[in-house]
Amino acid sequence: MNNLKVFSGSAHPKLARAICEQLGVPLGAAKLVRFTNENIKVKIEENVREADVFVVQPSCPPVNEGLMELLIMIDALRSASAARITAVTPYYPYVRSDKKDEPRISITARLVADLLAAAGANRVLAIDLHSPQVQGFFSIPSDHLTARTLIVEYFRKREDLANHVVVAPDAGEVKDAAGMAKRLGVPLAMVDKRRFGDDEKARAVHLVGDVRGKRALIIDDEIATGGTVIESSEFVRREGALDVSVAVVHPVLSGSAVSRLRAATAITEVVVTDTIPLPPEKQDPKFTVLSVAPLIAQAISRIHDGRSVSELFA
Length: 314
Prior knowledge:
The chain has 314 residues and is α/β, with parallel strands linked by helices. The chain contains eight helices and 14 strands. Helix 2 links the parallel strand 4 (52-56) and strand 5 (84-89). Helix 1 crosses helix 8.
């Protein structure tokens, strides 16, 4: 594609290369140096003057270092006279810090949006933000993709799909779960789950809907510690579900989440996407990984050509 360039930070080069393969363009040449004083230098090693540039960098450990790396790369591209710079953040940094629910705290997702614009980004491309209002934090154009369509297509191939029920693990996920249930043509249920304190532990107290004799499909936007989906899966099994599959977009898998999911006998399969890299220690036969590379590549192509991105979800 004429004057289209894709660069990658160090967070997820495998995904960036897969995107480039889909687009038929080489991955942009850049050099990252980490000095002994923990400073970072990014050097763009090819001409990007008047180019339409996309920088792929999801948020994953080390989160703060990755964010700083993204900002420095965007600034370097701006200094190199790129015509347009799009920050591609499959998992957006600090996405859960999207509201002021305590006194004297930062709405950090908005701060990140300001930082991207200040660094020189002209556009942001993200996947399945934790809350829709995050898109409103940007002072620059943004495109919000969803990888839930990939999950729908995956489960649609099951021969016994009619015996499934989509389960929302809490009230906040009901809208998205209802949309997936509709697309799959199966019923919807919801776990009334309560969270107490700051320990991230969730407790299911009631089930709205019927899972008895059904194969339950628990939907969420991400797995962090795994507490929510594990609690919900055990609850729906006690309510009579035959088995439980879990499907999320972002496999954050922080703390002991992987070992907890491995030990969770109520869960038979965990379906995730590769918006966040899964290192070897976080992989397991129970996990199925769907690639978002074709989705991002299509969006990049449409942005570059000035075509509609929303048509991807029509």
